[in-house]
Amino acid sequence: MSARLHICAAGPGVTVQDAGRFGYSRYGVTPAGPMDEAAFLTATRAVGAAAAIEISLGGVTLETEGASLAVAIAGGAFDIRLDQQKLPSACLIPLTPGARLTIRAGVSGAWCYVAVGARFDLPLALGSLSTHARSGIGPKPLAAGDALRFLGVAPAPDGAQAIEAPWLARDDAPIRVMLGPQDDYFTPKAIEALLSAEWRVGARSDRMAYALEGPQLTHSRGHDIVSDGAAIGAIQIPGSGAPFVLMADRQPTGGYPKIATVIGADLGRLAQLRPGETLRFTKVGWAEAVAARAALKNKLAAGAVLTPLAAEVSTEKLLAVNLIGGVVSGRE
Amino acid sequence: MRYDRPRFLDQGEAALTVEFGDAVDAELNALVLALDGAFLQEGLQGVRETTPTYRSLLVHYEPLEMSRQALIGWIEQRLPVIASEAKQSRAAVAGASRNDGGVWVIPCCYDPEIAEDIKEAGSILGLSPSSLAEAHAAADYRAFMYGFAPGWCYLGGLPEALAIPRRLAPRGLTPEGAVLIGGGLSLVATNPMPTGWYIIGRTPERLFSLTREPPFLIAPGEALRFEPIDAETFAALDARAAKGEILARREERA
């Protein structure tokens, strides 16, 4: 069975992502993949999908045609509406033909995932469906007027359900990093500053890297290294002394020293910060980082709790919803 | 400089940099590619992929499947074999994935009409465009690594006379197939990008194309040479390459 999903409106940065494109970094190809893996897995596992639509602050409006789809949504605290009904920021819904799903930036968070109980009818590029916009590999970023075709459509649920995934709750604890691999290129004062300062996410942040604003970090041995492989989460310090954290669309190699690396369990939390928001770093060792990784993996494996939502929207609920504010900030 | 023993540097809990030295050097690069070859051949459980560079190998692994210690132990066990393989491969300039000792011959047009910066680079180096082209085409290169963008292949073996510093500010987007020099190296570029290097030629060959099999032509560690062609030949070959044809050929090393 097949179905189509229409993109009625889309801000910038709406892409298709699967787990990522691995094995080609040796040819200069970026892995891409989701910015917040825990949110991506929460949405995809709820409907048994391998890929999802990743939505940025610009939001998106979707409609189906042909068949009802099971749609799971998870990510930051986005504002999600099915026609007039306001839904929790993580939910599983039936999207029936003619119904309109609108996702807009809510109170917090920068990325939201929409997974469909079906297979994208899209060709794999180097074994993956992930969009890497800069190199043009993978599906093109989605825009208003596009339609996605799906194959092997699973039955849609009877009613909307809330996905209770406590690991997606906002948590302002410091972002954990491991020092290195080039912490020896920095003065002890610079390392201390990295770990003690309050950092602000800069406006020039995107899927490739998050720019950080704060104190200038001084190199002790220059800012040029012979190119070296770069992992997700690595914090590069160019000549300006202003850090940037490499994210999903990073270059596979780089020539600036990397003072520290954000641990895997905290990458999604960092990704969900918007430009202008602040964060702090704290240092951990390998064992602690692996323990945090295992804890998150176990939570994800245990699965989210689904709670049925009332189909009827009460007047009280409608009044509680701000129907005037929250105009979509993206280009529409 | 090449270290006596590699340094193991963490990049978070799921990536380990194995650093053999801190220079751009064929011997060093051969060690990196020999270790990379061991990972490719043995397909170690828990290792997601490896990224070879001039001087280090980045191992992306799943620490819940393999500990850092076990990974380092596996690498250390292979170091003696890797050292001897690297010596052999340096003699043959053989690749990690192709061991026939051959060399890729890549057509390259050095005509100033197509090679946008050859006059400027020549005037900085004190060479006429034609002697710059002649020197570039006379050398044997080795693909040290890819980086920056898909199909951006960094080459060692540039003659000393062509060692030119990077521009102070980047130039605009490179055309497809740009052949560049900068910072003592040469480079063939596929995806258009801004760069601080100088375009001294263009190849009609696509080092990377998603619509062709194989998508990537040259593996890190392989040898290559440029064969000068005129602007007319460039146009004809470019049309053939656009249809998916591979233009480069493998030759025995002289």
Order of helices and strands of chain B: EEHEEHEHHEEEEEEEEHE
Structural class of chain A: alpha+beta
Percent in helix of chain B:
25-40%
Low-confidence stretches of chain A: 318-332
Radius of gyration of chain A: 20 Å
> How many individual β-strands of chain A?
22
The tally of helices of chain B reads 5
Number of domains of chain B: 2
H and E order of chain A:
EEHEEEEEEEEEEHEEEEEEEHEEHEH
CATH class of the largest domain in chain B: Mainly Beta
Please give the largest β-sheet of chain B.
8 strands, mixed
Strand coverage percent of chain A: 25-35%
The CATH architecture of the largest domain in chain B can be named as Beta Barrel
Give the low-pLDDT segments of chain B. 91-98
Gyration radius of chain B, in Å:
19 Å
The N- to C-terminal Cα distance of chain A equals: 32 Å
Distance between the termini of chain B: 30 Å
Query: Sheet with the most strands of chain A?
Result: 12 strands, antiparallel
Shape of chain B: globular
**CATH topology title of the largest domain in chain B:** Cyclophilin
**Reading side by side through the largest sheet of chain B, how are the strands ordered?**
12-9-10-7-6-13-5-14
